[in-house]
Write a sequence for this structure.
């Protein structure tokens, strides 16, 4: 019936209201008066889902008939963030929904707050994958995101007595209205056992894998809408299930545990996300997870190809597959296995196709983050893959020997197998050899990838190496997070096309000195600071002053990101205030956010130090009028959306050469925060774009760091050579921040004075002086706001749309397939 159709997919306020009440009744089985906040959220979610499904089905039909070349993004992490508001913005009905909500007397913010965040990622890498999915749809590139549907995502962080406490993330507890289970899309995943040779029907010698254990992977689909386009792409996440979920024989003999053993064993594979953004050696379950989602995804791609296009010959013409770091690198060996063992292809044909299909992105230079797996673990878990990797390596090393006669040292350095000590498989080498393109995620990082990490590979295949500087989606991190700013930009630009074409915000530049815009700009920032102040008071009890400068550092806690350098500056301010050395100080609120990997002791001690400093500073009447410190618990996409709009100063202070790119730096700058930072990762390109005069730079360059490492770095010389630095560290050791316990922070201060691997002491002085320049600049609000406007106006390049367009053009060779609205 026409009437029926309309309410479920109509975009009018009336249709939304009717559909909301219908869904509340037909799906939640509730009427308005007795509905719980969760019921109201689910009704809103289903009302939104009804409208995106219409687009999704239309899109899927078009892609199917068009056989469009499709990008498959293989990632162990997708840090999606809450769906509701983002989908309403991408459907273009956020305002209409808010009006409909008002007329139904709904508290829109409370409904949004109800949504559990799907925390299927650790940090930068996982969030980048989510931003890329949003931009792939908006740029109308046909794509499928493949990953794992962890039952438990990244832990929820609570702060108790200043310490991080991990709480398990039960994001699925109340159901997930944004996914559609696909029980019929399931694939067997093999483990263990042995391989054996046999002769196929034409007497050809072939290999087969006889596994000792098989589980099933089942698909769960989440539609990913584009903004202002008809295109909807697919995020397909795999859940592990036992092929036989109940063993009746065991049950009949009373072995009840045995009856469900297989089910429990299988489900552990997709049970939980590994909470570290640095690998923990040899975690067998982690390798099982990687093989699990890679095998399901490649089997699904082959099924889609056979069903829509036909024989596999042009598989690499129809699919490009991006390896998001080395976590899915097994795909190189798994595609070889599937093409040869299951589809009877020759080695050479399979290898040609494999190398033409895969592309690999490196996200970190940290040696401890480069995954290697022991050969013995592979022998036990993935014997067929080991055989294939050995053969890939044999042929690859032959090529090296041909090219670099007699250079056995080069052969040893480039081999897929590390022979020193326990034999281990270098997953990064497998990814580079098995891919047609390798890229870093920022200009400096991509140069360092070529000159250090993959120096030998760059010498062999210079044409393989690219750079694609990261980006972030302006939909979530401007329009959804900061609607006041979005409205002001639209008003100033006279259109909202900037949301899909961020270069258009450059129009703000010419208004940067207009007192009218400046006044509105300040009002928008102050309103966001008030919202954050109120919320932080609610969750931490700490009262901030919205008029103070909000100085924010929010990212995973890691020594290379140097949250402890930030803490030393706070202690410096405290000391100078206590000693009355600061004339008319600029009030500051120091705001931190970030999770530490549960096993990372020093990172957890840094969180404790920040909270310990906060306790002393915030309760000291001599200073708390000028400075406050707060650690915001549970930094994730949802809480991040409160932080980015409220920041005045964005801390991007990693040791040069360590942060591959950073993406938080882009989100803060796009919301009008000025950056204090080093020449690291994408900071360089942000500084180039916004103008050197609109960026607070300090510290050593990556070259300086390399030089200092070569000449030998002696942190104690800085400790003894700078009396303020010594005073700040000694104050920590004095026990002032630890109720007199002089030992609590010793592990941290001893490491700083004796090792300091990330050269905190070497950059201390420059950092302190730069912070003084920041305070001076903040006094001149007119100048500060002008810089803030120019920062936003010149951030167009850092949209993930630009990054995706570069990948599509320079690496994937995929043209947009427009689906009209
Ligand atoms: C558990 C193993 C592990 C190891 C490394 C990683 C990632 C590579 C770490 C990561 O998130 N890297 C960050 O990637 C961002 C997106 O490119 C960059 O902006 C950050 O600079 C980089 O640290 C996750 C998990």
């Amino acid at each position: 019936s026409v009437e029926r159709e309309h309410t479920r997919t109509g975009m009018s306020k009336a249709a939304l209201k009717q559909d909301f009440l219908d869904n509340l009744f037909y799906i939640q089985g509730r009427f308005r008066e007795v509905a719980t906040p969760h019921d109201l959220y689910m009704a809103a979610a289903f009302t939104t889902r009804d409208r995106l499904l219409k687009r999704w089905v239309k899109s899927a039909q078009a892609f199917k008939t068009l056989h469009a070349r499709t990008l498959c993004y293989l990632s162990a992490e997708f840090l999606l963030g809450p769906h509701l508001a983002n989908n309403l913005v991408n459907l273009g009905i956020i305002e209409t929904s808010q009006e409909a909500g008002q007329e139904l007397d709904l508290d829109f913010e409370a409904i949004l707050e109800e949504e559990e965040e799907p925390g299927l990622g650790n940090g930068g890498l996982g969030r980048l994958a989510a931003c890329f999915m949003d931009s792939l749809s908006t740029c109308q590139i046909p794509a499928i995101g493949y990953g794992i549907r962890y039952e438990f995502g990244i832990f929820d962080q609570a702060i108790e007595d200043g310490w991080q406490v991990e709480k398990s993330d039960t994001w699925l507890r109340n159901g997930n209205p944004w996914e559609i289970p696909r029980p019929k899309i399931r694939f067997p995943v093999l483990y263990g056992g042995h391989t054996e040779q046999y002769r196929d029907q034409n007497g050809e010698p072939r290999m087969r894998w006889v596994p000792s254990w098989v589980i099933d992977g089942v698909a769960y689909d989440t539609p990913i809408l584009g903004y202002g386009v008809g295109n909807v792409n697919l995020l397909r996440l795999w859940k592990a299930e036992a092929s036989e979920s109940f063993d009746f024989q065991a049950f009949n003999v009373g072995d009840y545990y045995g009856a469900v053993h297989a089910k429990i064993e299988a489900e552990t594979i997709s049970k939980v996300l590994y909470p570290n953004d640095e690998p923990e050696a040899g975690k067998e379950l982690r390798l099982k997870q990687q093989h699990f989602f890679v095998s399901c995804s490649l089997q699904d791609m082959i099924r889609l190809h056979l069903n829509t296009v036909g024989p596999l010959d042009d598989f690499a013409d129809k699919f490009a597959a991006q390896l998001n770091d080395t976590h899915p690198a097994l795909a190189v060996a798994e595609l070889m296995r599937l093409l040869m063992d299951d589809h009877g292809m020759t080695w050479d044909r399979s290898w040609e196709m494999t190398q033409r299909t895969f592309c690999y992105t490196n996200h970190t230079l940290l040696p401890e983050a480069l995954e290697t797996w022991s050969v013995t673990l592979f022998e036990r878990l993935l014997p067929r893959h080991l055989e294939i990797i050995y053969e890939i390596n044999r042929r690859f090393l032959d090529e090296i020997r041909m090219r670099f006669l007699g250079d056995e040292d080069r052969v040893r350095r480039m081999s897929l197998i590390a022979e020193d000590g326990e034999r281990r498989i270098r997953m990064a080498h497998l990814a580079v050899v098995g891919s047609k393109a390798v890229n870093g995620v920022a200009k400096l990082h991509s140069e360092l990838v070529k000159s250090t990490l993959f120096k030998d590979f760059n010498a062999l295949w210079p044409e393989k190496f690219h750079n694609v500087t990261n980006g972030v989606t302006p939909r979530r991190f401007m329009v959804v997070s900061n609607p006041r700013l979005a409205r002001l930009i639209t008003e100033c630009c006279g259109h909202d096309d900037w949301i899909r074409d961020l270069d258009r915000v450059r129009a703000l530049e010419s208004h940067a000195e207009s007192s009218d815009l400046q006044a509105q700009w300040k009002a928008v920032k102050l309103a966001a600071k008030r919202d954050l102040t109120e919320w932080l008071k609610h969750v931490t009890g700490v009262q901030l002053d919205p008029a103070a400068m909000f100085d924010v550092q929010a990212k995973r806690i890691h020594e290379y990101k140097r949250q402890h350098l930030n803490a030393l500056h706070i202690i410096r301010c405290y000391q100078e205030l206590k000693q009355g050395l600061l004339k008319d100080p600029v009030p500051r609120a120091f705001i931190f956010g970030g999770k530490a990997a549960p096993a990372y002791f020093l990172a957890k001690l840094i969180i404790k130090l920040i909270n310990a400093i906060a306790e002393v500073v915030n309760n000291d009447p001599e200073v708390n009028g000028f400075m406050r410190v707060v650690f915001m618990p549970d930094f994730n996409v949802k809480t991040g959306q409160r932080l980015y709009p409220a920041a005045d100063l964005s801390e991007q202070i990693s040791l040069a050469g360590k942060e591959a790119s950073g993406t938080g730096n882009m989100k803060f700058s796009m919301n009008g925060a000025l950056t204090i930072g080093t020449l690291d990762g994408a900071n360089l390109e942000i500084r180039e774009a916004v103008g050197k005069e609109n960026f607070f730079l300090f510290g050593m360059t990556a070259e300086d760091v390399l030089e200092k490492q070569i000449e030998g770095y002696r942190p104690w010389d800085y400790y003894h050579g700078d009396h303020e630095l010594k005073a700040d560290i000694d104050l920590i050791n004095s026990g002032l921040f630890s109720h007199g316990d002089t030992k609590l922070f010793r592990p941290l201060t001893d490491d700083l004075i004796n090792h300091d691997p990330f050269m905190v002491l070497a950059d201390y002085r420059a950092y302190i002086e730069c912070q003084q320049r920041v305070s001076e600049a903040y006094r001149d609000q007119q100048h500060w706001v002008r810089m803030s406007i120019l920062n936003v106006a010149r951030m167009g390049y850092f949209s993930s749309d630009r990054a995706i367009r570069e990948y599509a053009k320079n690496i994937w060779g995929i043209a947009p397939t427009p689906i009209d609205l």
Summary: Residues 122-125, 128, 274, 276-279, 325, 363-364, 369, 441, 470, 659-663, 681 surround 26W (CB under 6 Å).
